[in-house]
Amino acid sequence: xxxxxxxxxxxxxxxxxxxxxxxxxVHKEEQEKIGAFFKQLDDTIDLHQRKxxxxxxxxxxxxxxxxI
Length: 68
Description:
Blueprint: H1 14-18, H2 28-66
């Protein structure tokens, strides 16, 4: 955000982007732990999304029953 140009949609130009330093884990074990963490996070999000979808369907069904 600090390096982004101010506009409706903030963007970072190529020069500024190439000057951004990032940390990349060197050890494979650390990379695997990070990957496993994000996989678990994705799985949790998927689980909650499915639960939300089911609850929305259940709500829809209850509302239909109320007005029949």
